[in-house]
Amino acid sequence: MKELFRILRESDKLGYKLSAICGVNWLLGQVFKWQSLVFEMIACAILIKKISAILEISSNYLGFLMVIFILAVSFSKLRFGVERFIYSFSEGIVLVLIFSIVVDFPFQENESSLWILMALISIGICQFMKWFQAKLFQRYLFKNILNKAYLGIRKLKDELPPKINLFTEAAESDANQRMVMINKHAIKETYQGIVELSFLNVERFTGIAYCREAWNGVEAPLKKRFSDVDEMYHLVFRVYPFGKRMDLSFKLIRLDLSRRKAFTVEGVKVSLVNN
Would you give the DSSP letter of residue 164? Predict the structure, then answer.
């Protein structure tokens, strides 16, 4: 216990600050997500009641199908791993409980349209906040923590990546040396004690290319050959709130970066993945 308190006292306060920012960002996302889901369940319950009345059947039949659908979505997450399934299944159980309560609630006839409209508005708010949060979080990360130029993340008019960049250093054959170099340059010095590039996966895309070669002064016919079209770099950064001495961390962000786009005038858009 004394050792734990000593580590807490000696830990970089930036770790606490970054953890708090990530926690608030996650919490806000959950609030807007769940308010949208609650209104969706209300809208679904109202629609099921209306459809059941039109078909002159009990709403229990369609309600049961709705419950099966919600749980089936959870089981579809099994392919992503047990942890993802447990989280999705728990979420599904909560949605089923909300739906079960709402479907038995005596809504007034003139309230139906209002609740459906509110559900549509809540979905719109959720999608907007998801986009806005991602933009705001990216702005904070690339301004304070990650080296945007080194990673090849650029806009249309930005300069090409510097000579020392992610794509050249990722070619290092020694895995340990490769990750050490990338961590040194991808993360700003202030945060190198608490942020780490923990995983780096590379995908290579090979396709068909056509070219012409001069042939006795006459334009030759098209020749087909295979060539590497692009490489995708999948980077996962993690945060160590108490420093890297303690093996306690959480995912900060995952970036999917294209080598081809990083070196073209089109620039590169960041694919932000928090799953």
Answer: S
Which token pair is 203? 């995908």
Helices and strands of the chain, counted as H and E runs: 8, 6
Threshold 0.70, pTM exceeds: yes
Is there a contact between 162 and 149 (Cβ–Cβ < 8 Å)? yes
Which burial class, exposed, middle or buried, applies to 39 when counting CB atoms under 10 A from its CB (0-12, 13-18, 19+)? Answer: buried
Residues facing residue 22 across a β-bridge: none
Long-range contacts, 161-164 (Cβ 8 Å, 24+): 161/262, 161/263
Taking 90 as the threshold, does the pLDDT of residue 54 lie above it? no
**Given a cut of 80, is residue 191 above it in pLDDT?**
yes
Cβ–Cβ < 8 Å for 166, 151: yes
3-state secondary structure of 221: coil
Q: Left, alpha or beta for 5 (phi > 0: left; psi -120 to 50: alpha)?
A: alpha
At 33, the pLDDT band (50, 70, 90 cuts) reads very high
User: Which pair of tokens denotes residue 210?
Assistant: 């056509």
